[in-house]
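Tokens in:
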């Protein structure tokens, strides 16, 4: 069923000639001494950010990289990340922000698929990138290394030297709002990741409609996101949202463990305490269970946002009881750039994902493609101004997802009588673990590479916190032996570490159809029955 129509009337459309990096820099030109970003190495003011963005833009163009050509951004969250992302956009190039947790095979594919002309990379990730470049036939013009850990090769240049060698670009590339602005890779249920192409105008809409108008962020806020900048969720939380309102953001290179998160929340970086924290349910559960959990008086958070996976009601209530702040849960996607369905800071309904963000429409459709009644489950479709342009080089998936103004989310939802929406699970077999999609097929295919494994099936199971974890059912070859820990280590070595199954159960056979297909729904039902 469709919600009452929402409009973007409170947000003026950007002009036809529009460069998003220019928009952010000009919006903050009046307070150059204000802190824009803080990382472990120091503070970057808005004034310094503007200079560095424009110098990087000039440097990238000096390499002969042309308008709309891609630049791979493989960097841990730090002050060089927004400089890289916005510098490429300012120059009219297209930054391709990628997950820092992947394998050389993944990056080799992304280099070839995006045809990236240069790479901006953290020194700690350079060995992985080098391995990827060896695997790939695609050649890049230059590798620009932030904080290198070892001497560089001739084709590599140190980030700071590259910035200093170029005068700031006098004016931005004359892009339009509908021009390609950047890519984010979105994983699919099968096959390779999909290059999701966003325009220059898309982050303008999500930042104003959600960050400013819904969350009510202001220039006085200090934002801190556990989700990294390469995620669509983290990109809004840690860059586009704070910059749109002139706020400050704390950036963290390390993994968002409870201790690392607490350190930032308690002012351990430059004495600055965040007022807004963006996280995911798995992280909140880990925080609440940790012995070093800070007290309400030790932090300064006034607002907490959650996305990436559905927030269990009990988890939100426990968090509120401890910190006195509600978690504002919402759902977004790489394809829509950020959240389009959400609870509100002043009205949180735990157990639901809230209401449509003003500016977005929601429709639930049945298997026949027609809208369903309230209380009936349906596939979630959304319509809004921040929808991606396409999946690059994948017409079939583009047509399947982007349908005449509507974007198919792949989620099942129920609309309640009060206008809120309740999550019903993914429409396919994809699992979302710690806010990141995991394909069971990919994990199964890796498990059966082990010489002791005959067959494997992977499903999602709900843990005691109400969160999804991966579980593998494994059939060993006759006479073969393998332990749970050995198989976990095997998967970790082959895939990105977060994809390994958290639990492995050894069984003698798997349920199958007459044609030999594994019946995962039977395993899920068996697990639900305990």
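Residues out:
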């Amino acid at each position: 069923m469709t919600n009452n129509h929402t409009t973007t009337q409170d947000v003026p459309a950007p002009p036809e000639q529009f460069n998003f990096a220019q928009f952010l820099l000009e919006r903050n030109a009046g307070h150059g001494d204000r802190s824009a970003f803080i990382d472990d190495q120091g503070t970057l003011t808005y004034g310094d950010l503007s200079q560095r963005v424009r110098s990087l833009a000039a440097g990238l163009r000096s390499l002969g990289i042309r308008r709309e050509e891609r630049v791979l951004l493989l960097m841990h969250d730090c002050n060089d990340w927004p400089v890289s992302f916005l510098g490429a956009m300012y120059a009219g190039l297209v930054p391709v922000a990628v997950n820092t947790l992947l394998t050389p095979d993944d990056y080799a594919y992304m280099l070839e698929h995006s045809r990236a002309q240069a790479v901006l990379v953290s020194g700690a990730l350079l060995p992985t990138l080098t391995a990827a470049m060896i695997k790939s036939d695609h050649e890049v013009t230059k590798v620009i290394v932030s904080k290198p850990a070892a001497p560089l090769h001739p084709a590599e240049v140190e980030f700071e030297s590259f910035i200093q060698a170029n005068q700031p670009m006098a004016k931005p590339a004359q892009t339009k709002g509908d021009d390609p602005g950047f890519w984010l890779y979105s994983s699919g249920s099968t096959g390779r990741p999909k290059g999701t192409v966003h325009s220059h105008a898309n982050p303008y809409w999500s930042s104003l409609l959600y960050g400013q108008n819904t969350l009510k962020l202001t220039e006085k806020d200090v934002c801190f996101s556990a989700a990294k900048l390469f995620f669509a969720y983290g990109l809004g939380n840690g860059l586009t949202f704070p910059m749109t309102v002139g706020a400050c953001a704390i950036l963290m290179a390390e993994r968002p463990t409870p201790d690392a998160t607490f350190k930032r929340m308690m002012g351990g970086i430059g004495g600055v305490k965040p007022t807004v924290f963006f996280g995911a349910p798995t992280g909140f559960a880990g925080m609440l269970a940790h012995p070093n959990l800070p007290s309400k008086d030790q932090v300064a958070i006034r607002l907490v946002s959650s996305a990436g996976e559905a927030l269990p009601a009990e988890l939100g209530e426990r968090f509120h009881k401890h910190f006195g702040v509600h978690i504002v849960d919402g759902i977004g996607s790489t394809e829509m750039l950020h959240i389009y369905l959400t609870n509100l800071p002043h009205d949180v309904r735990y157990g639901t994902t809230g209401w449509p963000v003003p500016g977005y429409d929601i429709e639930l459709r049945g298997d026949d493609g027609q809208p369903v009644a309230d209380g009936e489950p349906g596939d979630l479709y959304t319509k809004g101004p921040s929808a991606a342009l396409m999946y690059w080089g994948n017409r079939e998936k583009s047509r399947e997802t982007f349908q005449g103004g509507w974007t198919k989310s792949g989620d099942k939802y129920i609309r309640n009588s009060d206008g809120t929406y309740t999550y019903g699970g993914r429409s396919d077999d994809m699992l979302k673990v710690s806010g990141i999609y995991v394909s069971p097929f990919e994990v199964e295919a890796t498990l059966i590479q082990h010489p002791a494994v005959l067959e494997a099936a992977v499903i999602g199971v709900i843990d005691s916190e109400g969160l999804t974890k991966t579980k593998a059912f494994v059939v060993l070859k006759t006479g073969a032996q393998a332990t749970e820990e050995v198989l976990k280590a095997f998967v970790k070595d082959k895939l990105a570490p977060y994809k390994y199954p958290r639990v492995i159960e050894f069984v003698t056979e798997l349920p199958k159809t007459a044609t030999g297909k594994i019946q995962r729904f039977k395993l899920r039902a068996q697990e639900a029955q305990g």
